[in-house]
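user: Please review this fold.
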Amino acid sequence: MADVRKTEEAQELALAAELQSALLPKQCPTHCEHQVAAAKNRMSGSVGGDFYDFIRINDDQIALVIGDMVGHGVRASLLMANIMGWLRSSPANLSKPVRLMADLNLMLLDLWNRVGSPMPCSIFYMVIDLPSGCAFFVNAGHPRPFLCDRDQCATFHLGARNMLLGVQEFEPEEGCNEFTPGQRLVLYTDGIPDAMNRRGEQFGHERLSELLNRSQDGTPESLTELVFNELDKFRDGAGQLDDETIVVFDRI
């Protein structure tokens, strides 16, 4: 009986992993003029709490989002699926990063009140005007992305880094940037710099920055593959400790 139960649990977990993978988009929405984007994700277990999305708002705007539930596993995967569904069901506020993130924060706080356990989440949400390259964004506790010009990638310091969502009520601060042709934005979750090798050393932000700076000529898709390959080489057989996600956005 115990073996049957274990088999059923394994099958259910495999199905949950398939469903979670299906939720994550494989590419930017079709007909995204002036933009090329790619993303890659792998969970530390069968399911996890990292997520990303490209949401078409209207003919001229898309939203780009990346997030990371605190923790991983089944609980985190259920919450990330809930957030992704909530975002896509909020069309009225999709073009308003501050309002959308404030409402999402209230939703997570309400879940905390109902289940008696906090639901913290880091998230970077950005709305991009496709014709002009003008973008408005909110960073709620997420690692600062890299902004790459033709000759250098550097940490993107524009805009405030707000607190995590799901901790307490607050009014998020918004940042803005006008992307010009040839610029690249690299978003990632902390599982990438926090990856560790057999000697207990972290991959780190500096190593990630060096990798991005020497790989500027590649496509967004080739860069996502390269980062994950370099992570595997660095780990040298050590286990993956956290979910890992990278999103690369090019303005062309």
